[in-house]
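Researcher: Let's try something more involved. This one mixes different molecule types, so please make sure each is placed in the same coordinate frame as the others.
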Amino acid sequence: MVCAMRPTHTGKAGDAMMLRVENLSVSFRTDEGMITPVEGVQFGLDAGRTLGIVGESGSGKSVSTKALMRLLPNSARLSANTRMTFVDKRGETIEIEKLRPGSRALRRLRGGEIGMIFQEPMASFSPVYTIGNQIMETIRLHRGLKGAKARELAVETLSKVGISNPSARIDQYPHELSGGMRQRCMIALALSAEPRLLIADEPTTALDVTIQAQVLDLMHDLQRELGMAMIFITHDLGVIAQIAQDVAVMYLGTIVEQGPVRDVLQTPAHPYTRDLIAAIPRLDRLEHRLHTVPGEIPSPSARPTGCSFRTRCSDAIDGLCATKTPPVTDLGGGRMVRCHRHYPERTAT
Amino acid sequence: MLRFLTERAIGMAVTLFLVSIMVFVIMELPPGDYADRYAFRKYSGTGLTITEADVAAIRAELGLDKAAILRYFDWIGGIILRGDFGQAYAFETSVNSIIGEKAWLTLGLLLVTLIITYVVSIPIGIFAAVRRGSAVDYGLTVFSYLGLALPNFLLALVLLYFANSWFGAAVGGLFSAEYADAPWSLAKFWDLVKHMWLPAFVLAWSAMAYQIQTVRATMSDEIGKLSVTAARARGVPEGRLLLKYPARLAINPIASTIGFDVNRIFSELPIVAAVLGLTELGDLLLKSFLDLDMNVAGAILLLLTVVIVVMNFLSDLLLAWLDPRIRLGG
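Model: All components are placed in one shared frame. Result:
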């Protein structure tokens, strides 16, 4: 279940959630002054569920998840009211934003509780160590196994992600493997620590389409088998439809719409979501030109006033969208949207 | 790997051949040859008149009348087959007996210089990159530009002055007077160590400054790589992470430029040798050029270039060992 975006929403159901993110705002000090690529992001995730986060490049998807792992550079600042809580394997609640850099608790969270895989499987591995070296490092750190035991587990995990002849592959270097194989190894690396949550940051974007489908299937199966929760970041709504139960659509650092995948895809409430859905190429509509969202995503340093999407919105309301930031509207059924088109209808009374 | 080795070895052999030809050409350049000098030295002051025919006879006797190409093969053949570098004009003895020990001293000085260079520049470069943008980083950057800009004979003079006035040490040369001609012993070796640090430091100066910048630049690059973020995301402790991932790759460019450093050190050797009164090959090279003693100069040039070429080969091997992408042909 996705929890509410509203700051006021605190309920019993929310407290049981494995991951809760509230008021997540990230600012960077740059030469052109402060920019805020992520502002007021709220979401939650139950154990074993998959949340898809979708948005264009620059929408703040990756920054949000890096903040969850405390992987942002030193120039980044979280807002004072940012809250990120995570219930770990032992049932203890970790307040992620309060963890000290370099602390044992943070190192245990990274990898051990939350695993992460990235877009570029080649660049995610260091080229000078074997795949096995890097997987066994994770096993040593989080499973307390050494030597032959660690190797055995690494081989086992590699075979679990569909690597053939894993006992030979384990001694190979990243450049000796194909792109799809490398991403499988990266998944194996993340899984070898048995995290409760896996963050996948566009894991299939750099792969061939056929390999993409295989890797998606694999992740889907493994998740079900291991009962692991997943945050799946992508710019591709088609991928979200295949793998996620809930979806959050991000635009310029805020979540503009979220809810169960099926509902959001069938009856999108936000104009941006509608545009994204229309932009999915479809084989049965080949006679039409490809639809694109008009214009380009503005830079976070030049965020439009009022609703940040209004500059590209075909449905903007004159005088309102440019001046007032749309508040979050609860549409019921776990659906939220941040758009004036929905808000006035509900408050007109 | 075997193919890589063979390719590099063949490359090295070809380079060495070309180098030997160039050295031979340099040896041939000055006017006059050994026969002229031999005749001059033997008969000057005796009142005898020497004719062209006498000189030609000496030339024939020494085999110097042969075509240049034959003399090249005599010369290089002697070096390769018997380790014989020929006759030194100025000293009336063989080149080998003049160079002999000095060659080993030079090689020793080179190794100590390289060790100082890397022991200093690698940790400092890594540190500067980790703390980049900090006061320490700027300080080190200024220091290393100073290192590049300051000619090292000047540095040698300054250090010589301070070493002398502060420690009262006689730091010139490679040995104290009492050990200079003494046979090798532990005491003599210790004396050498005490003398060698200063010239080695002076010679390492610019290579050090250069390599600090190299390590800093590569390390800064590597720290931002996704593989480092990925390692951090799997909970690797920061200190171990820096050493295992970015630092491990930041030393690759060092390994691949050892040959350049040797080159740099050798080109600075003669002038530093002159300032510090070193009695090794640099000093001898300068002298033999002044005396037009081309066999000695040629032998030294050949030795130095061979060291450079061999070090380049070794640096290729080292890089292959360090980087599996090269070793396994990726």
